[in-house]
Write a structure and sequence with these properties.
elongated; three-stranded antiparallel beta sheet; six-stranded parallel beta sheet; disordered C terminus; single chain; about 210 residues; alpha/beta
């Protein structure tokens, strides 16, 4: 089952999501279980929204509980054989998409993101996206698992791991605003090394 929730979001003028493919606007956050990927993503999403960006998130899971309570109209329709049920209200839209035994491709899931300026992806290693790896000193892993992967673009950590290429941007785990700026610039095609010297999102103008 896939459940999509959309709500009214203020338009953003800094990015034109109609001019790029969803893959060009998607970035992955990878790391071991318990490292804090979701915690970091929550802060990055908030920073992006504060910057006026429309953000979608795709989170991969091996299994999750069905959130459609038995007996509800939507559950009854699904039980009757509807492979997709769309619940629409003025505030949001929910899509229940049952695909037991035939998991959709990542591209199918990415299409659900719609016309977002940025799509942040968690725990979808097979997606092949530019990735930010998350490391935490309290966990056993001391080396980045993406160290030989050309898709590695960023590292968020609370210690200084070895063998990190100069091309990989480093961030602290508290640098959500800097990560948000970095991703916005990547989505716009900027890889300017001077980006790191610019003030964080939300900083007052000099």
């Amino acid at each position: 089952m896939t459940c999509e929730t959309t709500s009214s979001i203020l338009p953003n003028e800094s990015l034109d999501s109609t001019r790029t493919t969803p893959f060009a606007r998607a970035f992955s956050f990878v790391g071991d279980s318990g490292v804090g990927k979701t915690t970091l993503l929550v802060s990055v999403v908030a920073a992006l929204r504060a910057a006026g960006a429309k953000v979608a998130v795709v989170k991969h899971s091996q299994h999750f509980d069905d959130t459609d309570p038995p007996g509800k109209d939507s559950a009854r329709l699904r039980a009757a054989g509807a492979s997709r049920v769309v619940l629409a209200s003025p505030e949001r839209t929910l899509v229940f998409w049952d695909h037991a035994g035939a998991s959709p491709s990542f591209a199918d899931h990415l299409a659900l993101a719609g016309a977002a300026d940025l799509v942040l992806v968690e725990s979808y290693a097979s997606a092949g996206l530019p990735a930010i790896e998350v490391l935490r000193a309290a966990l056993p892993r001391r080396e980045a698992r993406l160290r030989a992967d050309p898709r590695w673009i960023g590292l968020a950590s609370d210690f200084d791991p070895q063998a990190v290429p100069a091309s990989v941007r480093r961030f602290s785990l508290e640098a959500a605003a800097e990560i948000a700026r970095f991703l916005l610039q990547r989505a716009q095609g900027s890889t300017d090394p001077n980006d790191a010297a610019r003030p964080p999102l939300g900083s007052p103008s000099p």
